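Design a sequence for this backbone.
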């Protein structure tokens, strides 16, 4: 299936910023973390930690305790552009960006795409270097495929993840 084609069983998952993340009285740190309640009642929380990288923890449905923080990607470059989480049928996607002077407006140099399923203890992580950052994800209905998307003046960039194969190479226009 090529760019722009659809199998009919894919849809746009809501981004975390549209979900349960608190907005009122938000601090600067709130821009670098996101919490998403999953369709099965579990909750996942991802944060970008200055000097550390991307960290994740999760919580079972109805639980009051969280798992320990798990570092998904290590970097010491600046955080930028926040964190986006989406979920369909137990498949969770993650978008995050880092780059030197990125918080001052420079483009990211490390664009993170992540996918987790099941217990959320194992994440597949892809890092695209010197790239403007993924804008959105599309997850098919059964959660077996995730498409990370970036629409530029030059055309559509995408990165496909498949449950049976993991990440493929970035497709450029």
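Sequence:
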């Amino acid at each position: 299936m090529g760019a722009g084609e659809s199998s009919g069983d894919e849809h746009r998952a809501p981004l975390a910023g549209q979900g349960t993340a608190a907005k009122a009285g938000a601090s600067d740190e709130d821009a670098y973390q996101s919490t998403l309640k999953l369709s099965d009642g579990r909750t996942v929380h991802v944060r970008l930690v200055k000097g550390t990288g991307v960290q994740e923890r999760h919580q079972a449905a109805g639980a009051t305790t969280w798992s320990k923080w798990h570092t998904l990607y290590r970097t010491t470059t600046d955080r930028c552009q926040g964190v986006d989480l989406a979920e369909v049928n137990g498949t969770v996607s993650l978008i995050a960006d880092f780059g030197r002077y990125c918080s001052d407006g420079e483009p990211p140099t490390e664009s993170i795409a992540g996918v987790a399923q099941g217990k959320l203890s194992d994440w597949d992580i892809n890092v695209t270097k010197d790239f403007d950052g993924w804008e959105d994800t599309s997850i098919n209905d059964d959660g077996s495929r995730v498409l990370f998307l970036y629409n530029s003046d030059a055309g559509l960039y995408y990165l496909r993840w498949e449950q049976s194969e993991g990440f493929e190479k970035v497709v450029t226009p």
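The CA atoms of residues 40 and 148 lie 23 Å apart.
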